[in-house]
Structure prediction request, 63 residues.
Amino acid sequence: MKQSEIKDLSAAELQSKLGELRKTYADLRTAHAISPIENPLQIRTVRRSIARVATELSKRELQ
Prediction:
């Protein structure tokens, strides 16, 4: 997800998106541990998306 897309979401939507991304990340890690996935860079992009969403949530809590 891009930062501009994240800023447009509400706090509740960000929470649900964070949950979805964390589940996707866990699934990708599990699949990659069992047998190498086709595109291992997916793991990096999902992890960075999790960080972006979590950062936006914490920034909104501070305001």
About this structure: The radius of gyration is 13 Å. The chain has a mean pLDDT of 94. The longest helix spans residues 11-34.
